[in-house]
């Protein structure tokens, strides 16, 4: 076989261009399976629903939980209250707890099915709250319902804290109504979600889990300093 | 013959020097970001903030997104007499909004403005659904065409002002001269800690990607320039080599 060292420069460049052209052609021909694989990294396989569910996100989450309760599969719904930011404080936007109560009540599900986890804080994030819940309920299995593209990230966060109870946690990722791993690249929201999920995973690997800080500023005071400066 | 033998060595030396310099540049950037992030990353954030000084304009367009922040700063502008009219756009529904779980973007903004003390008659919802900053700016252009004597401030978050300004330059046309830009702070992160917050990290990286995407023409010109420059250098070197080879043969 002729080594690259012995080849004339022009032929070496020709070979490089040919390899590049073949790569580009392959990517164009097989873009669909490649892009499906890119998105599949972000999700985890869906497992059967367990008697306890923790709702984190996902399109149609309340309908699925309500159906599962009516069919007798789910007995308890865990809700983690979100932080009260300006819109929730002013009553403009419902909190996660109010939303869950309202949506499940629409399907005729009683409030007694709901159990609130403590409000997550920087020192005590949701995964720690769930770990404590698992310790208190050692024989109970739980399904975590989340959006399809955030499943890998959530699984990683939970695995950092709930190692001892990982066999009790089952994952139930929900596809968005607009896109999924097979067609995400055809929709703007799909591309943004995929991009965001990759960055969320990257951020996690760099900084670990936890929640963002939140400081409610006074817009009038800010405007005054802006005008003065 | 000696001359011919040294030519590949020389080119290899240049190649090694080029690679070394490139590696050094990459390593120094990575090292400085890792060792002194507090000095470099705030500047990376400040680059995206292209706000104008606050000035009175007839209207303020509140760009969609961050309904818990932007409307409250717009309301402050209104209350302190920097604007008489607040404009909002109708954002295309998706996710929880499409499912009817939470109010739509314009409903949230209108409610936030009302809660912040802005009378309903000072708020105007621009017609047509939008799904991007480009479409929002197109709505503003229509508004400014319909109101030729009015000026407007585009209100968004600081990290979004550079891209908004770039897009406005293309979309607003002759109305651009009547437009100002104002960036308001995000409340989960700021210029000095954005890389420690998941939302901040995502927002800044996304903004840089979008800024690069929207300046693809400039990038393409630079790329083309580099390619042409490289070809020219290669051609000059080859011509020189051929000349020296022919001189040796002649000798």
Task: Walk me through this protein's architecture.
The complex is a heterodimer of chains A (about 230) and B (about 250). With about 230 residues, chain A is α/β, with parallel strands linked by helices. Helix content of chain A is about 45%, strand content about 10%. Chain A contains nine helices and five strands; from the N terminus they run H-H-E-H-E-H-H-E-H-E-H-E-H-H. Chain A has helices spanning about 10-30, 30-40, 60-70, 85-90, 95-105, 125-135, 150-160, 190-205, 220-229; strands spanning about 50-55, 75-80, 115, 140-145, 170-175. A five-stranded parallel β-sheet of chain A has the order 3-2-1-4-5, with helices on both faces. In chain A, strand 1, helix 3 (about 60-70) and strand 2 form a beta-alpha-beta unit. The longest helix of chain A is centred in the N-terminal third of the chain and has 21 residues, at about 10-30. Chain B is an alpha/beta fold. Chain B has helices spanning about 1-35, 35-50, 70-80, 95-100, 105-115, 135-145, 160-170, 200-215, 215-250, and strands at about 60, 85-90, 125-130, 150-155, 180-185. Chain B has a five-stranded parallel β-sheet, with helices on both faces. In chain B, helix 3 (about 70-80) links the parallel strand 1 and strand 2. In chain B, helix 1 crosses helix 2, helix 3 crosses helix 5 (about 105-115) and helix 7 (about 160-170) runs parallel beside helix 8.
Total DSSP helices of chain A: 9
Mean pLDDT of chain A: 88
Q: Could you tell me the mean pLDDT of chain B?
A: 87
Intertermini distance of chain B: 11 Å
Which spans of chain B of ≥5 residues are poorly predicted at pLDDT below 50? 1-6
């Amino acid at each position: 076989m002729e080594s690259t060292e012995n080849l004339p420069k022009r032929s070496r460049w020709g070979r490089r261009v040919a390899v590049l052209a073949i790569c580009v052609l392959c990517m164009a021909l097989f873009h669909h399976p490649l892009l499906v694989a890119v998105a599949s990294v972000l999700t985890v396989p869906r497992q059967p629903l367990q008697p306890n569910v923790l709702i984190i996100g996902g399109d149609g989450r309340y309908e699925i939980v309500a159906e599962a309760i009516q069919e007798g599969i789910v007995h308890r719904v865990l809700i983690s209250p979100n932080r009260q930011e300006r819109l929730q404080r002013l009553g403009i936007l419902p909190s996660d707890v109010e939303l869950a109560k309202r949506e499940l009540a629409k399907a005729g599900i009683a409030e007694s099915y709901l159990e609130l986890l403590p409000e997550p804080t920087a020192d005590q994030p949701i995964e720690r709250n769930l770990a404590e819940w698992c310790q208190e309920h050692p024989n109970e299995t739980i399904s975590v319902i989340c959006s399809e593209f955030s499943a890998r990230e959530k699984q990683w966060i939970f695995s950092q804290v709930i190692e001892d109870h990982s066999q009790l946690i089952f994952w139930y990722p929900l596809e968005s109504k607009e896109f999924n791993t097979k067609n995400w690249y055809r929709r703007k929201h799909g591309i943004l979600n995929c991009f965001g999920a990759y960055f969320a995973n990257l951020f996690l690997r760099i900084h670990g889990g936890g929640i963002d800080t939140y400081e409610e500023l006074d817009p009038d005071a800010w405007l005054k300093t802006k005008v003065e400066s | 013959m000696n001359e011919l033998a040294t030519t590949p060595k020389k080119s290899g030396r240049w190649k090694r020097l080029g690679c070394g310099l490139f590696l050094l540049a990459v390593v120094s950037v990575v090292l400085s970001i890792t060792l002194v992030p507090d000095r470099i990353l705030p500047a990376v954030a400040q680059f995206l903030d292209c706000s104008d000084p606050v000035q009175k304009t007839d209207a303020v367009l509140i760009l969609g997104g961050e309904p818990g922040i932007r409307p409250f700063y717009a309301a402050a502008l209104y209350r302190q007499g920097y604007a008489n009219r607040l404009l909002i756009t109708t954002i295309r529904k998706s996710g929880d909004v499409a499912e009817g779980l939470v109010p739509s973007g314009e409903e949230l903004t209108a409610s936030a403005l009302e809660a912040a003390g802005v009378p309903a008659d000072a708020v105007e919802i621009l017609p047509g659904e939008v799904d991007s900053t480009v479409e929002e700016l197109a709505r503003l252009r229509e508004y400014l065409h319909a109101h030729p004597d009015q000026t407007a401030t585009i209100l968004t978050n600081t990290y979004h002002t550079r891209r908004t300004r770039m897009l406005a330059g293309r979309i607003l046309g002759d109305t651009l001269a009547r437009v100002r830009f104002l960036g308001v702070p995000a409340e989960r992160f700021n210029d000095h800690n954005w890389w420690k917050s998941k939302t901040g990290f995502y927002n800044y990286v996304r903004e840089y990607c979008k800024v690069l995407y929207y300046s693809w023409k400039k990038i393409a010109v630079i790329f083309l320039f580099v390619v042409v420059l490289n070809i020219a250098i290669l051609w000059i070197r080859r011509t020189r080599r051929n000349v020296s080879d022919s001189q040796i043969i002649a000798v």
